[in-house]
Amino acid sequence: MQDYTIRKTPVASTFDGDWEGTVWSDVPSLELAHFHEQNSDHRPHTRAKVIYDDAGIYVIFHVRDRYVRCVDTTRNGRMCADSCVEWFVEPVAGRGYFNFEINCGGTLLAHYNAQSASIRYDPVEVDDARLDLVKIYHSMPQVVDPEIPEPTDWVLEFFVPFGLFESYVGPVTRSSQAIWRANFYKCGEDTSHRHWAMWNEIPGELGFHKPECFAPIRFE
């Protein structure tokens, strides 16, 4: 199982998508190196970095991609159909998890999943007021259509305030040595070369909503 340590940053990101910039240059990256068996022959090289400050968590993805397509501009739409990166995270053990899915054009889906005993996946859409608190930088245009078959690098960076998590699960620990659980994904279900990449491997049936496959992310 994977493991990742989140560093505390003394300086908030400037949201310019600079993977090697001042804020991000010394931050270790994780790689989404596992691909589902139903994957096409397209295996985009996808990495992510995570940092935090007193206000919330910052995540940046760098993707070396092809067959890039992005058409959904509706919040809480079907982002996984487009060229998309995703972060699923459980801040408090046993209190459910959140899935943040953002296509390369910067359109966001965010759900809270309480994981009731009777229903495996029973999502609640995060409302517009809370979605407005999520800050997003995207290097690609909002819409990419037709698909770009040539090699294309793109960056997506976002910020989630701790208050968004706490409005659903109560107080979250973010001090040194706190441990959350998470997984990171890259997909493109309606692109010409469908693919599903994962940080921590999910064996068996295709599906990202498997919190039992989340891995620890530790606060430095």
CATH class: Mainly Beta
Radius of gyration: 16 Å
Largest sheet: 14 strands, mixed
Number of strands: 16
The average pLDDT score comes to 94
Estimated share of beta-strand residues: 35-45%
- Quaternary state reads single chain
Write up this protein.
By secondary structure, the chain is mostly beta strands. The chain has one domain: Sandwich (Immunoglobulin-like). Helix content is 5%, strand content 40%. The strands form two sheets. Strands 1, 2, 3, 4, 5, 7, 8, 9, 10, 11, 13, 14, 15 and 16 form a 14-stranded mixed beta sheet that branches. The protein has a two-stranded antiparallel ribbon with strand order 6-12. The protein is globular and about 45 Å long.
Defining traits:
single chain, 220 residues, mainly beta, Immunoglobulin-like, 14-stranded mixed beta sheet, two-stranded antiparallel sheet, 5% helix, 40% strand, globular
Question: What's the arrangement of secondary structure elements?
Answer:
Blueprint: E1 4-8, E2 30-31, E3 34-35, E4 45-52, E5 56-65, E6 68-70, E7 84-90, E8 97-103, E9 108-113, E10 123-125, H1 128-131, E11 135-138, E12 144-148, E13 152-161, H2 162-169, E14 179-187, E15 196-198, E16 215-219
Parallel strand pairs: 1-4, 1-16
Antiparallel strand pairs: 2-4, 3-15, 4-5, 5-13, 6-12, 7-8, 7-14, 8-9, 9-10, 11-13, 14-15, 14-16
Could you give a quick summary of the protein structure above?
The chain has helices spanning 128-131, 162-169, and strands at residues 4-8, 30-31, 34-35, 45-52, 56-65, 68-70, 84-90, 97-103, 108-113, 123-125, 135-138, 144-148, 152-161, 179-187, 196-198, 215-219. The protein has 220 residues and is mainly β. The protein has a single domain (4-219), classed as Immunoglobulin-like (Sandwich).
